[in-house]
Amino acid sequence: MHDAGKAAARARTLRESTVEIWPEASHAINGEYPARLAERVHAFLDGVHEHRQG
User: Fold this and answer.
1) pLDDT digits over 9-49, tens only?
2) Which of 3, 14, 29, 30 would be a feasible disulfide site paired with 25, CB 3.0-4.6 Å?
3) Is the distance from CB of 24 to CB of 31 less than 8 angstroms?
4) Terminal Cα distance for the chain, rounded
């Protein structure tokens, strides 16, 4: 439906972007990989917090 590689390349042009492609995941990623997704979200939010503190 969408070209993930093309979308990721465009997203990477944005300042301070974080981009990951999970080729094995579908649009139901939150149900398929809840622990892995939660880990990545927490890591992202920790980085935002550190950036704002620094």
Assistant:
1) 999 999 888 899 999 999 899 999 999 999 999 999 998 88
2) 29
3) no
4) 40
Two structure tokens written together for 39: 């880990």
| Amino acid occupying residue 20 | E
Q: Do 12 and 21 meet the contact criterion of CB atoms below 8 Å apart?
A: no
- Residue type at 1 in one-letter notation: M
> What is the 3 state secondary structure string of the chain?
CCCHHHHHHHHCCCCCCCCCCCCCCCCCHHHHCHHHHHHHHHHHHHHHHHHHHC
